[in-house]
Amino acid sequence: MVQELTRPTSLRRGAAPDTAFAFLDGEFLPVRDAKVSVLSHAFNYGTGVFEGIRAYWNAQDEQLYALHLKEHYLRLHRSCRIMRIGLPYTADDLVGITLELLRKCNYREDAYIRPIAYKSSPVIGVRLHDLEDSFTVFAVPFGTYIDIDRGISCSVSSWRRTDDNAIPARSKITGAYVNAALAKTEAQEAGFDEAIVLTQDGHVSEGNPDLHSQDRRGQRHPDRDTPG
Ligand SMILES: Cc1ncc(COP(=O)(O)O)c(C=O)c1O
Q1: Going by DSSP bridges, is the β-strand pair 154-160/194-198 parallel, antiparallel, or unpaired?
Q2: Distance between Cα 207 and ligand 1 center (Å)
Q3: Is the CB of 209 within 6 Å of ligand 1?
Q4: Does the Cβ of 17 fall within 6 Å of ligand 1?
Q5: Is there an atom of ligand 1 within 6 Å of 48 CB?
Q6: Which domains does the chain possess?
Q7: Cβ contact 57:109 at 8 Å
Q8: Who has the most CB within 10 Å: 34, 51, 154, 196?
Q9: Sign (positive or negative) of CA dihedral 196, 223, 174, 181
């Protein structure tokens, strides 16, 4: 994929340039003004659900193409149902909001779109009920997650995958990603690129950048072998 870089090379990988926008609670804001409170429930307890959506810059077409936007938003809705998060937009609404966001950000390189629906009440108290919900989406410039021009080295993590009956993997829950973060850092500190994580009973479960993926009927989806 040919990429045109429009951002300063000093921008940290995964960070948004100052010119970026975010959509937060119904309005588009410069990303630097899109703030959440330290009291937010999701900040304290990881009570959010999210998606990671790739968008690829095509230099010939001078166009950014986002991958399976509607399917990702349908999955976000399923995640919300499990976490009892009210999302006041249909999947089609969310596709429209995201396209508008990408137009405003005006990236001319590959990007990563991050919608999050979350428990936003500024209160302490571990629960899912009796809380307000919010929605935000932003996008950052983002190339390949791992170097796909060479093989990668993987360790088998000493951390085991969180059981589905502890935190359901069917819902893409922000707080659950601590499990992947522990595995990734352990692997990299030991000199590997990535971690392979096993289930509690020792079967291969996943790799951090989604080394394998399945749809809900158990079929492999090579075109979805991208993060998110
Ligand atoms: C950059 C990046 N890569 C990979 C992943 C893993 O995604 P998944 O758990 O859907 O495979 C994430 C998490 O969403 C991510 O943020």
Answers
A1: parallel
A2: 10
A3: yes
A4: no
A5: no
A6: 21-141 (3.30.470.10), 154-212 (3.20.10.10)
A7: yes
A8: 51
A9: positive
Distance of alpha carbon 225 from alpha carbon 213, whole angstroms: 6
143 lines ligand 1 (CB under 6 A): no
Q: How far is residue 21's CA from residue 137's CA, in Å, rounded to a whole number?
A: 9
Tokens of 89: 């937009």
pTM confidence score: 0.88
Residue 194: both structure tokens together? 């990535």
Counting ligand 1 atoms within 8 A of each CB, the residue from 79, 152, 177 with the most, and so the one to mutate, is 177
Helix pair 91-105, 69-83: axis angle to 10 deg: 120
Mutate to test the pocket of ligand 1, among 54, 171, 210, 220 (most ligand atoms within 8 A of CB): 210
Q: Could you please report the per-residue DSSP string of 116-153?
A: EEEE--S---S-SSS--EEEEEEEEE---SS-TTS---
